[in-house]
Amino acid sequence: MSPSFAAPALFPAVHGQAMRRLTEVTGLVPVEYPTTRRPGATPQDRAADINAAFADPRIRAIHAVIGGDDQITVVPHLDPGLALADPKPFVGTSDNTNVHQWLWTHGVASFYGGSTQVHLGPGPAVDDLHARSLRAALLTGERLEITDPGESEDTGVSWDDPRALTEYGAREPTTPWDWYGPERSVTGRTWGGCIEVLQWVLTAGRFPFGPDALDGGVLLVETSEELLPAREVAWIMRSLGERGLLAAVAAVLLARPPVSDFARRPSATERDRLRAEQRDRVVEVVTSYNPDAVVCVGIPFGHTRPQWILPHGGRMTVDGAAQKVFADYA
């Protein structure tokens, strides 16, 4: 379904390939809801699709096609009773942080990551680590080590280009993850998402808890294709710190950020500098509020590909001594 932007209406070939691959990877049969291909669908109608999916016992998972920028208007029309009566995996990233946060506040875990239009439809195949985490989220509930794929792309081929169905975007080698904080292992419940959307959620008053709700947790933070300057990412993180949220968590995972898009492609040196600047500013903020937090920077989740789908409201282990990360998909 399209709780935000109805991308399948504009790029049906990518959507069609994504649906075929979803079945190939998981064995599950996709069911398309009415607003999936309806640009401009009202928040009420998009919410009705989510409510209907939770209400239908035949539906065993809900997968967002892609994000967008107005899902915050959909959330008020969701029925928590339906999600609580039959909790089922919700998979999505970016603007879908809104639904993830709504589920979290009602005690329902979900899975942060995965846009069928981005991670299943384009390219010559589905990336192995994405397929493994998708199967873990929807089928097996197993525990996986989160590893680095060795390559990454900020954008794929434009979906209006036929090559989008057969080619990856411009991929480049990744660098080793950066670790900060004490050399200890922590396991906790995850909370977070796209930092721009987290700011909207908090501004709208949709996190009705004190910092103790995140005690011992693992904060997931990633940035969108809007390419937010590092100073603004740090400002939002500082606000999380002032609210007491940074001091409450035991670990912070900062994703590998996109630093280019279709209009802007800095040099390789500049791309490295932009990623390092975000890393340094965020780590400085986190450690100023919580020097005991274990921090890992560079995890491939959020707005990057290949991409891991991660538990949201589930449990992850961040081992600063062994410098390893594990996710429990149960």
Outline:
The chain contains eleven helices and 14 strands.
Description:
- The protein is an alpha/beta fold and 330 residues long.
- It is built from 11 helices and 14 strands.
- Strands 4-14-13-8-9-10-11-7 form an 8-stranded mixed beta sheet. A 4-stranded mixed beta sheet has the order 1-2-3-12. It has a two-stranded antiparallel sheet with strand order 5-6.
- β1 (62-63), α4 and β2 form a beta-alpha-beta unit.
- α9 runs parallel beside α11 (268-289).
- The longest helix has 22 residues, at 268-289.
- The protein starts with 6 loop residues before the first helix and ends with a strand.
- The relative contact order is 0.16.
Indicate the topology.
Blueprint: H1 7-10, H2 12-26, H3 43-55, E1 62-63, H4 80-85, E2 90-92, H5 97-105, E3 110-112, H6 116-120, H7 128-140, E4 143-146, E5 151-152, E6 172-173, E7 178-180, E8 185-194, H8 195-203, E9 218-222, H9 230-242, H10 245-248, E10 251-255, H11 268-289, E11 294-299, E12 310-312, E13 315-319, E14 324-328
Relevant terms:
single chain, 330 residues, alpha/beta, eight-stranded mixed β-sheet, 11 helices
Tell me the radius of gyration.
18 Å
In the predicted model, the low-confidence regions spanning at least 5 consecutive residues are none
Order of helices and strands: HHHEHEHEHHEEEEEHEHHEHEEEE
Q: Count of DSSP E strands?
A: 14
Strand order, sheet with most strands = 4-14-13-8-9-10-11-7
Helicity level: 25-40%
Number of helices: 11
Major beta sheet summary: 8 strands, mixed
Shape: globular
Structural category: alpha/beta
Please give the alpha-carbon distance between the first and last residues: 23 Å
Strand content: 15-25%
Mean pLDDT: 98
